[in-house]
Amino acid sequence: MRSLINPSRQNTLQNKADTDHSPNPRRRGGVDLKIATELGMDAEAGEALERICGMARSRKIAVAGRFMPDAGVSARLASLGVMENVEEADFFKYHRIIIPFSGATARQRREWEEEGHPLEDLTSPRVRRAQVALGLLKMEGSQPLVIGRHDDPESISISGGRSGSILQDTTDTSRLRFAPAFGVVCQTTLSPRRVSWLVQQLRLRWRDAQVTFLDTVSPAMAAREEALERLLVACDRVVIVGEAGEASCEALVETTLRRGKAPTLVTSADDLAALDFKNEKVALTAGAFATHEAVLAVAAGLAGR
């Protein structure tokens, strides 16, 4: 299975977590820690983060939105003087305006270019693929739909800002008007199981319509979920490093609950202080935007319990 982050970083993370931070032998009353083999940022997200950090060291830049939905990433950018969620009226103050990893709609990008704003596009390659795929389906005559979350910047950028084309649950499916053909893609950080279920519900809702689904879930997301599932058979609790409400973290929470296990979401090692672990087997995983440093710190904190 493909590594989710740069091989050298993945080896460092896995070796340190397994060798330095896993209690061995297990201490009486302590935590028996197991680390998922696939977790945290994939290579593309890591490269984008390093790229924006490199740019910040030599010029004044800002992000038209939030670069990545993670507190650790935001803190790192803030330490370098990078402003996020900057309004268009303030674009003139900066040498470069960064399009975030979640992307922007084609209309937004066109308007910014026409205004002459200097843009640097750091959209995820997976998001760009979903945008292109949806555009091709629309050109073929299909009604375009995105399986995603209504308020997620990534789903909004893929859909082109058409809120009515985003399917979050079966309520959205039931409200759809009939079309002879639907063309469907999905947010890249959703659970593959959830995406498959919603596609099935769409087909059941309109049996006489043609539904063309192009799977745009990131392979890294599927790998995170599979790695967690392998640990769930032998753990009591799951600790997920990431930000509450972020799509990939919510997908990992859903996976944990489906197996009847207790998920605990933490943004940093500091959050562990309020938690009580008593002689438990704990699985550790992380969402799509959790930093390497945050995962290592949480692993160290758990091993020290």
Rg measurement, Å:
21 Å
| Tally of discrete structural domains | 3
Residue stretches low in confidence (pLDDT < 50, at least 5 long) are 1-11, 19-29
The largest sheet, given as strand count, sense and whether it forms a barrel, is: 4 strands, parallel
Q: What order do the helices and strands follow?
A: HEHEHEHEHEHEHEHEHEHEEH
CATH superfamily of the largest domain: 4-hydroxy-3-methylbut-2-enyl diphosphate reductase, catalytic domain
CATH domain class name of the largest domain: Alpha Beta
**CATH architecture annotation name of the largest domain:** 3-Layer(aba) Sandwich
Overall number of strands = 11
User: For this entry, what is the oligomeric state of its chains?
Assistant: single chain
Number of helices: 11
Lateral strand order in the biggest sheet: 1-11-9-10
Write structural notes for this entry.
- By secondary structure, this protein is an alpha/beta fold.
- It folds into 3 domains: 7-42 and 219-303, Cobalt-precorrin-4 Transmethylase, domain 1 (3-Layer(aba) Sandwich), CATH 3.40.1010; 44-123, Rossmann fold (3-Layer(aba) Sandwich); 126-213, 4-hydroxy-3-methylbut-2-enyl diphosphate reductase, catalytic domain (Cobalt-precorrin-4 Transmethylase, domain 1, 3-Layer(aba) Sandwich).
- The chain contains 11 helices and 11 strands.
- It has helices at residues 7-20, 43-56, 71-79, 106-114, 125-139, 153-159, 170-175, 192-205, 219-232, 247-258, 292-303, and strands at 31-35, 61-63, 96-99, 119-121, 143-147, 166-167, 181-186, 210-213, 237-241, 262-266, 280-286.
- It is flat and about 60 Å long.
- The chain starts with 6 loop residues before the first helix and ends with a helix.
- One of its GO terms (biological process) is dimethylallyl diphosphate biosynthetic process.
